[in-house]
Amino acid sequence: MAGDLVQPGERVLRGEGGAGQTTIGLVQLRARQIVGSTYLTALHTGLLRKAGEADRRIDAVATWHTAPYFTDAERAALALVEAVLTANPHGERVPDPLYVEAARHHDPKALTTRTIAIGQVNFFVPLALIGKPVPGVAPADQWT
User: Using CA atoms, how far apart are residues 98 and 110, in angstroms rounded to an integer?
Assistant: First the structure.
């Protein structure tokens, strides 16, 4: 499994069925990269580092398809957020096989948590794209 390439001493937080905070953090980071928000990308990178996530995994989120550092459950979660946030001119964004793959790695509670986390991501996208916050400056200080 790809996640076996995590080196001894690297802290990887996991919850049941891959529903841990790390997976949610990785999903949030990938979403921020997709929508092109430097502020939110920097924020979620910092949060993952603060939680003890390995730098090489954080650095590889943008190229998770080919990076050997992610578990199958994390890959399913990253594929799900990409499908939701990327227009598909050839059909539905989340095809049944992708949902089945995500459900295979995440129990119903974890899959619901993942879906809510993706919805939360979408809530903050307009703030990031319209407000264009600057990394390192509190939003309240930028918009007054």
Answer: 15
pTM of the shown model: 0.76
Question: Nearest CA to 77 among 43, 125, 132, 115?
Answer: 115
> Would you tell me how many other CB atoms lie within 10 Å of the CB of residue 117?
20
What is each CA distance from 41 to 15, 25, 36, 38, 62, in whole angstroms?
A: 23, 11, 8, 5, 11
**Residue range 1-43, pLDDT digits in tens:** 333 333 333 333 333 334 478 889 999 999 999 988 888 899 8
Tell me how far CA of residue 14 lies from CA of 25, 94, 103, in angstroms: 11, 24, 17
Token digits of residue 22: 């790390």
